[in-house]
Amino acid sequence: MAKPRTLFSILLEQPWWVSALAGGALFGIAQLVFPPVAPFVALPFVVLASYVGFRQLRTVSPGQVDERLAALRDMHWDQFSVLIADAYRKQGYTVEAADKPAYDYTLTQGSRVTLLQCRRWKVNQFGAGPVEELARAVASAEAHNGICIAAGNVSPKARESVVGKPLALVSGIELAALVGKIAGQSNK
To answer: Quick one: which H or E segment has residue 131?
Structure first.
């Protein structure tokens, strides 16, 4: 049985202005009925609108996602690899190139080691083979986890092969957010 959804869980998925509009409408109704409580009725909606607005500012719009992924697919390996390495350095990782068949970089943060595979970023559909190859490398290197990066679509079989394994797939909006604005890309 599906869990019932609350008004706030629905508003969390909407643009920020929907929560602000709901808060304004409830403020107006409460102002007509019992003015002393009107600000308190609207307050949760104002807080929710602020939170959702902040969260939406930090994400990438759908148009930017497609534009960034296309720009990534057009890059040569040397440009792409520098961009990915810099993105993980900005997150606090120490990034070292690895000349291994299953992964391209070793990311270290504190005592945690992550193996990063990104050489198949251009493929139209990322399959399960590279994911399974990375899973074996993570186990043999005793790394904490592994990350597969793909600018194309990820096959359902590849998504299934990460389940229950210390692996993550980074594609689509996550990849666009990871790399940030790409030089030469227009502002949308």
So the answer is: helix 128-141
Instruction: Please state, in angstroms and as integers, the Cα–Cα distance from residue 73 to each residue in 51, 52, 56, 125, 174, following that order.
Output: 33, 31, 25, 12, 15
* Residue 185 · residue 71 · CB < 8 Å: yes
Is the pLDDT assigned to residue 65 strictly greater than 70? yes
At position 54, the amino acid (one-letter code) is F
**pLDDT tens-digit readout, 21-58:** 999 999 999 999 999 999 999 999 999 999 988 877 77
